[in-house]
Amino acid sequence: MDQNVLIGKTMKRRAWPLLAALAFALGACGGSSGAGGEAPRDPGAEAAPKAGGEASGAKQEECNAFIGVVNTGVTKIEEIASAPQDPATDLLRMADTMNAVADACSKLELTVPELLAFQKRYHAMGKKMAKAAYDMIDAAKAKDKAQVESAQKRLDEATREEDPLVDQINSFCQQ
User: Are the beta carbons of 134 and 148 closer than 8 angstroms?
Assistant: First the structure.
């Protein structure tokens, strides 16, 4: 797992290649009826941490809050990937987790302009990933190979946004 050291926190990355691998497995096996099973635990159910503070420490505090939300989600995705069950169920749980992480990131009360821009980009990226994964699950259930492949392409495109964005966030927070 790649990690970058930040002021007091590390931001994990490369969780979504795990999702992409599961998505590929789902597409290759033609899906599963297991996606409609037990509802995953909602990782966004906890209240989003409030960021902010005194001007001198606001950047560090807000970076740490943002990174904390992201890392919590990455850890949950890693847990799902480390104990695979059914590809469709696992993909659904990961998509639900990413959706919740994107929502939790957007709820952070940030004041640093650069972090606000990163927050908006991370939210959009997370929503694209989750939507593509949900679409892939639906297409696999319908046994629509063309739609599975289309959703896989969209997931791959969204996933490619993660590393550069995390690098930019880490670089900014290390300054």
Answer: no
pTM, rounded to two decimals = 0.73
What average pLDDT does this structure show over 18-40?
Answer: 41
Q: What is the pLDDT of residue 57?
A: 85
pLDDT band at 4 (very low <50, low <70, confident <90, very high): very low
Q: With CA atoms as reference, report the closest residue to 11 among 66, 52, 57.
A: 66
The domain segmentation of the chain, as residue ranges, is: 11-28+52-140+147-174
At 3 the three-state DSSP class reads strand
3-state helix, strand, coil in the chain (%, to 5): 75, 5, 25
Contact 57, 91 (CB under 8 A): no
**How many of the other CB atoms lie within 10 Å of CB of 80?**
22
Please report the sign of the dihedral spanned by the C-alpha atoms of residue 149, residue 154, residue 158, residue 160. positive
Residue 43 has a CB neighbour count (10 Å cut-off) of 21
Residue labelled with tokens 């990174």: 67
